[in-house]
């Protein structure tokens, strides 16, 4: 009897362990969010705050989720809500969710950045009922993961990377790049020269909400381009712009015409003179 009791006890312990292993991922899920802590934004332009989150339970469609962005110390002071009447007047028509909540993406876009848009901006997720679209008991504000904005009043200058040596008649590549925090509206980069066929543009995600737009110009310099200015202009969403300029130093290709032409002329003259001498000798003979 004692043996059977021990076996039964061991069997129960084993079942508990198996159940703990199977269901631990479910019960171990917590409310989590990853938000960029601090980000620069150009006043008058736009900024995108990257945000991802996780919630307990199975994955849900966007229709069953409600995303809200609010001030850290007052969740009723909302920067974004699907019901625009609940948004602060100073943020109405300026905020938008770029991510899909069903994919656990809560990325926020803020347009026409103003001086007072410092934040902190905190994300809140609510699970809503299927029928009446009202929030249930599953909701959470990530007040420990909030974003703050540092204001830039002047547009940053683009960075130019020219070749050290630009040779006349040979293809040359020059790049102009600018870093920004508005991935939804790329800065527009233009050159003081070059056609569309000579320009290629690349966008890179640097991380932490920072993006880089790079314009690559490939052109064939001429002799007349020496000591002329090449200008790159970056125009940001909202209208602000900045420029960077450098002076082209074109190395001329080696030209030996000043040596070759006289030598050829002398050789031709000598040949003609030699033929005349031969003809004169034959004539007298």
From TrEMBL:
Pfam families: ig. Residues 1-28 form the signal peptide. The chain crosses the membrane at residues 259-281. The keyword Glycoprotein does not apply. PROSITE patterns: IG_LIKE. The keyword Transmembrane helix applies. Keywords: Immunoglobulin domain, Membrane, Signal, Transmembrane, Transmembrane helix. Residues 158-249 form the Ig-like domain. InterPro entries: Ig-like_dom, Ig-like_dom_sf, Ig-like_fold, Immunoglobulin_dom. This is Ig-like domain-containing protein. It comes from Fundulus heteroclitus (Killifish).
